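Hi support team,

I submitted a single chain yesterday and got back a structure, but I'm not sure I'm reading the token output correctly. Could someone confirm the output below corresponds to the sequence I sent? I've pasted both exactly as they appear in my results page.

Thanks,
R.
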Amino acid sequence: MFTSTKRIIRGGFTHFTRNAFVSLASVLIMTATLFTIAGVVFLTAILSTSLEEIKDKVDVNVYFQTGAKEADMLALQKSLESLPEVRSVEYISRQQALENFKKRHEDDELTLQALRELPDNPLGAVLNIRAKEPSQYAGLAQFLESENALGGKLSVIDEVNYYDNKGAIDKLSSIIKSARTIGLALSLVLVIVSLIIALNTIRLAIYISREEIAVQRLVGASNAFIRGPFVVSGILYGLAASLSTLAAYLPITYYLGNATQTFLSGFNLFDYYLGHIGEFILIIVLGGAFLGAVASFFAVRRYLHI
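Hi R., thanks for writing in. Yes, this is the structure output for that exact sequence:
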């Protein structure tokens, strides 16, 4: 067993080094395949970041009457925070709401002057609610209209602005759902096409050795002994391609890092790559070795009728 294994491994290295041009072509094609797979990972991360950024811009505000008691408002905040679909609830006091209003209208002197002439703060406190998914805001609006929200003290709520923003929230939910579906479909298509190209390239590399395989069969070599060297060479193709892919993404992500940070609110592609380098090594190296081994196994079996 040890001798056979040693010969299979040696044969795999021989196939890898003997046909330099074919090996180079196979490594380049597999590099493109792994490059696409890694690109899908980056695309998924960018899409997730973009969707999270969009979702963070969506919220529902609960405006209270100016005479509402703070204890009631904090009780509602606690009730909302206990709901599984709620991500966060921010309480904005009357004074803070007034300060925010003044800041938004700091260039509008007429508005500020009219505000100063009022005898009291005209603004009520606000609860800013963020759900985990935009589609969950409808349920939150129904909860706020129910008697369970404040134990029957709904009169302290002046307005819930969900229905004012319902059209925009529904449209955003549809866009997010479509983006996820399209992104997944595009990723699958790219990966499948790349795998098919890599498989056909390795088939060509094995087809060149068909006479050698025929001789091995004539002298009584087992199927496993014939397949073994090609599987080993396929693994070597994958390992070489994975190292090339990992190295190629270093300058690419470094070059694109600042651009992505500018357009994606702080998401730096280079920092993401370095921060997840262990995961990329695991995915790319193991993926490349597995792809090369499986492609070689099936290429020998299908085209050489072993």
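A quick pointer for reading it: The longest helix spans residues 162-207. Let us know if anything else looks off.

Best,
Support desk
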